[in-house]
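step: validate -> pass
step: tokenize input -> pass
step: predict -> running
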Amino acid sequence: MDCPRIKMPFAEFEKIERLLGWKTEYWDGYARFTPRAMGVDTCLNFAAVSSPPNQATSKFTLITPTPNHTQQMLDSYIAAFINSVEFCGWPINSIFDEAQRDISLYFAGKRGKPLSASVIVLDSKTNQLIGTALITDKKKNACLELLYVRPEYQRKGVGKQMLHHSIRQLMQQGYTQITSRYHICNHHSRQLYHKLGF
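step: predict -> pass
step: emit ->
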């Protein structure tokens, strides 16, 4: 995703609303917007929410990821993030490198012990991996390290279903909360976290 730029006179630029987390500049007749590399730390205390519903569905299969799923996870990661604010302005090869790094660090336990509450979602008809939620244990605290859904499945409840599944698993394992971090400019992530009670 290229950083947005809009041709406009400077007088109009002075009147535009500044967006949360975005650096807004003007030069050569264009308003230019660059997302700041700012994360928002958030936490969900399980005692503050009712038990997540168990939503059985025939459309999706939820399983714990293994290293055998790495290539599918990478493919879905790229599909989910290639046009996102998280990688705005990044060269494509750098996004591929970051995907490889994130997935390999998870399985290697470099960001904390991988937990069985982590989940991938497969489309039951095509067996295509459509979403991933990777959760680690850091000093006896559950942390949602990575959450993504392929674009064609976004805003259809897949992320919510994955998180409900993971939260049920974590509660059964004795965890009382989960922490996470999202990009300040990612409006959809912010909405999802707030809906779930983070």
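step: describe -> The CA atoms of residues 117 and 168 lie 8 Å apart.
step: cleanup -> pass
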